[in-house]
Amino acid sequence: MADPATYRPAPGEIPDSPGVYRFRDEHGRVIYVGKAKSLRQRLSSYFQDLANLHPRTQQMVTTAASVQWTVVGTEVEALALEYSWIKEFDPRFNVKYRDDKSYPYLAVTMAEEFPRVQVLRGAKRAGTRYFGPYAHAWAIRETVDLLLRVFPVRTCSAGVFRRANQQGRPCLLGYIDKCSAPCVGRIAPDDHRALAQDFCDFMAGDTARFTRRLTARMKEAAADLDYERAARLRDDIATLETAMQKNAVVLPDGTEADVFALSGDELEAAVQVFHVRDGRIRGQRGWVVEKVEDVTDAELVEHLLQQVYGGEDVQAGAVPREVLVPVLPPEVDQVEDWLTGLRGGRVHVRVPQRGDKHELARTVLKNAEHALVLHRTRRAGDLTTRSQALREIQEALDLATAPLRIECYDVSHNQGTFQSASMVVFEDGMARKSEYRLFSVRGPEGEGARDDTAAMHEVITRRFRRYLADRAASGELEIGGGDDEDGLRSGPVDAETGRPTRFAYPPNLVVVDGGPPQVAAAAAALAELGVDDVALCGLAKRLEEVWLPGEEYPVILQRSSEGLYLLQRLRDEAHRFAITAHRKRRSKGMTVSVLDDVPGLGPARQASLLRHFGSVKRLRAASVEEIATVPGMGERTAAAVVAALQGTATPPGASAPTPAPAAVEESPGGGGAPRPAASNRDGTTVAGMLEA
């Protein structure tokens, strides 16, 4: 580790002028590039006491072995030079932008004698007009396929073009009028170029001119009684309108803007941009930003604009009149001047405050937030990140060791009916789905628990009672005894198969979905069983607070911490698993029938009975002989059906049975009033009797 004092410039050497500076390591590699309005003030800030610097800045200045600078005339020149050096040297301590995919563009090769329309990715080529980027290549091809009817520009490759020219016969597109066939001389080069230019103008947003032109020609053809030509022009107008509708109108016509959004934490951020041309979203791009240097959101925006517009191959049309950002860059005037020079016209950088542009910015922000969640989900497989998450949980909950096995419990029901609970297991920070378990909450009377806390108490009791029974059967009563070399507790195995028993492994940490009431119920269950070496906490969803048993105040983890992220994943997975089980039980309970318990009467025979008699009411009134005539039925089964139906018939004057509650959207703890299921007049649930 180098001492910054060893390469600190002497007083008076650094000029008080705008410029760009480079830090190099001992091997001469550029590790950081920056710009400054005053080189003297900026560079002096790096050589202060290390304790006052940000940790990442400390690492940079101690890794560097020298610093160099270049004086420029204006801050705009410094902005351009900084980007070119970042692109050239790829410094390790500068902000890194990783495109989350290679976005396709619609390209028109205007530099060729016969311009070609195609889909391109990667670096841009000189003399080619680009439109986009688009999220999907198929979206471009759909648009091009529509527009070729009106603008039959060449789309074939050079090889296909040469072969058609040699054979004197165009390809299929030439025969179906989706190509003007310049390969066989059907159109002159200048006319084909004009056709390609019209295609570019339409894609650039000048759409009204072409619809007006085609409308005028259609009316002329109709006036000349040339109805076939008028019909073709009418279809061409409809084609253009369809192509325009594929890009949603979000802002008034003529609006040109790029809308940026940023969502992230101290380590990384997700960036999204929507390209709006002529009031329509023409494309979308996204990046994941690694904050390898200490930067604010405003500085991130500045770096982002350099990334998007600073390429050597950027075209004037790529810079819009407006650039809408979440926060203004530090030197917004210099950024605007730089973008104005690239565009050749005035460019405004601003933060939308109200109206349609503000609403669109909120939409872009939602996309950025979703992209960040997706990125974090993907990075969950990273071993270093998982280790950090477990270490943070260990420190926050004051555990002796990192919780390598965590179990999370959640309860789901619908107004107290069909109560189900889930147990999900994460080992070493990763989901272990083979260890997931489901519980049907029974309650003391077999009709379910009275509330969520009672249900949680029952589930925890059943899980650890089973564990203790398995341990006792194997002669290992001590929980936590016999840790294996990986830190996971060993458990009993089946003598025949050699596999662990159903609840073989106790967790290092139990997490329940809920606050103090649920935590208290789980703690009581563990205490009643004598389990005292399993850590317990609850995660309350409203404020993402972590509650410990008997504590008056919760443990607060940083919103961006890996530990909280892991607990959230646990809770969400338990919630998903519990709701899935609840829905299955509810669906099955909503389709029950009195015929289900008749011996020998399966779904096929039930369906035959209902098809034959048409309704349960008629089936109830049928005799044994009549039922026995149904194909597949015998007298013994028919007698069992009659006995079952007579045993469930509603006596005269009695009220009909209350049907089971119908489906409503459930969440742990229920919510929402249930709606009764549709039923026949005899009280039998329609969904149940007609399931077959």
From TrEMBL:
MF terms (GO), sorted A to Z: DNA binding; excinuclease ABC activity
HAMAP family: UvrC (MF_00203)
Protein name (record): UvrABC system protein C
Record domain UvrC family homology region profile: where: 259-522
Task performed by this protein: The UvrABC repair system catalyzes the recognition and processing of DNA lesions. UvrC both incises the 5' and 3' sides of the lesion. The N-terminal half is responsible for the 3' incision and the C-terminal half is responsible for the 5' incision.
Alphabetized UniProt keyword annotations: Cytoplasm, DNA damage, DNA excision, DNA repair, Excision nuclease, SOS response
Self-association and partners: Interacts with UvrB in an incision complex.
Positions of the GIY-YIG domain: 16-95
Compartment(s): Cytoplasm
Residue stretches of biased makeup (Low complexity): 650-667
Gene Ontology biological process terms in this record: nucleotide-excision repair; SOS response
Entry GO terms, CC: cytoplasm; excinuclease repair complex
Region of interest: Disordered: 477-500, 650-692
